[in-house]
Amino acid sequence: MWSRVIGQRRAVGVLQQALAHDRVANTYLFHGPAGSGPRAAALAFGQALLCERRGRPGGPEGDACGTCLACTKAARLIHPDLHVYLPFPKVSSGADKDDRPSDYPERIAQLALEPYAPVDYRQRGALGDDGPSKKQVEHRRRPTNEFLRRDMTFVPAEGRYVVGVMTDADHVRTEAANSLLKLLEEPGPDVVLILTAERVENVLPTILSRCQRVRFDPLPAEAIEEALVARSGVPPGDAGVVARMADGSFTRALEIWSSESVKEKRALALDFVRKAYTGRPELVAPVIQQASTGGREAIKSWLDLVALWVRDLVLAQAVGAEAQLVNVDQADAVHRFVAALPEADLGAMATLVAEATEAIEANGSAGLILPTLAFGLRDAMFGQSSGHLVTPLDAPA
What three-state secondary structure class fits 326? Predict the structure, then answer.
C-alpha cells in the first residue's frame, strides 16, 4: 500500500493515476537515490496491481485494499505472481556459482517486513553484518534467464498480472542486459516489469527507451525523522541526528541507527579532520589505517561521513548559529572550528573529499589517496589549497 512509501507525492500520484485509469505500462523504471523510495514504491505498485478489490465496487481505485487475500500475500512477498530480483555475488563454493546465495530468501522476507530495509548485497555482505559485500554484486546472464525471463513468460497464476521487481538495474552485466532487452521487446500482455535504479546513466539506452520512467527525489530530513520515530521506535532526539546523517535515504537512516560501526566511523571521520589539521604524518597514519579496513565500499562510506563534517563546517561558516547541521550533537565543535580558522577554504575542502571519493570508486589506492587528502585538507584549512586533490597538469604555475 502507498502508506508504506515515505513522501514522494509526485511519483506516487503518477502511479495512482495509472492504476485508477487502467493505463499501466509493461515496463517501468523507478529511479532516484538509494533508499529514497523506488523499491518501496515498486512493491506497493505490485501489490496494487494484484489487489482483488481494486477498481471494483467498494474497492480502492489507485491503491491496494490491504485486506484481500492477494494483498496479504503480496505484502508478505509470497504471492505467486509477484517476483523480486536482487543482484547478488557469485557463491564461493558449489558446482554452479551463479546459484542464489543461501540467505536470499531471508533477505526477501526482511524486505517484506520493511521495504526500505538494508538487505542489498552491495551494502550488506552478510545479514547481521555492517560491511558491504567484498565481491562484485550484479545481475548476470544465467540468473536473469533462469529466474526473471522464465517468470515473466508465465501467465498469471492467481492475479491480474505477473509482476517483476528488478532492483539495481544500473548494475547489470552487458550480456544480462541483452537478455533483459529480449524480454522487453515482446512483453506479454499481462506482464509488468518494474526496474529500480540509482544511476540512470548506467542503464543501457535501449532498455531506457522501453521504460516509462518515474523519478524519486531525496527524502527531506523531517520525513526521515518522522518515519524513524513512527516505524522504528527511534527516540525523537536520536532520530533528528540520524535523519540528517542519512542524506535523503531512509535505508541509510536504518543502517545508521542499527550500526555501532557507523557511530564509531563518524567519530573517526572527525578525528581524521582534526589530525589532518596538525599536518603530522605520525598522527594521521593510524587514523588512515583504521579507516582503510573493510574494502572500497567501506572506505567510500567513511568518506561520506567526512563529507558530512565538511558540509556542516560550510553551513556554519555561511549561516552561523542558525545553520541546520547534520552533526547537531557536535554543534559546539563545529562552530569552534569555524571561529578558529577564519581563513579556511571550506569549499576546497568539500571538493577534495569529493575527488577522493571518486578516486576510491575508480579503484585508486587508499594508501595514496587518503594521505593526499589529509594534507590537502590541511592546506585548505589555512587557505592555501589548490582546490584539487591532484593539481591538473595544465594548471598555471
Answer: coil
Other C-beta atoms closer than 10 Å to the C-beta of 173 total 15
- Tell whether 244 and 147 lie within a shared domain: no
- Given a contact cutoff of 8 angstroms between Cβ atoms, the answer to whether 317 and 281 are in contact is no
pLDDT along the chain (397 residues), means of 10: 93 94 93 94 96 90 93 96 91 68 91 92 74 76 87 88 93 86 84 93 88 94 92 83 86 82 79 90 92 80 85 83 76 84 85 91 88 91 77 44
The domain of 112 spans 2-215
What distance in Å separates the CA atoms of residue 374 and residue 285, rounded to the nearest whole number? 10
Residue 80, all three cell numbers: 505467486
d(CA 18, CA 302): 41
**158 and 200 share one domain:** yes
Q: Looking at the structure, tell me whether residues 68 and 195 fall in a common domain.
A: yes
| Three-point CA angle 17, 22, 28, nearest 5° | 70
Amino acid at 340: A
Torsion over CA of 189, 191, 196 and 200, rounded to 10 degrees?
-30
Among residues 172, 174, 84, 87, the alpha carbon closest in space to that of 133 is found at 87
Residue 310 grid coordinates: 565538511
What is the spatial order of strands in the sheet that 27-31 belongs to?
A: 82-85, 162-166, 191-197, 27-31, 212-215
Looking at the fold, whether 117 and 20 belong to one and the same domain comes out as yes
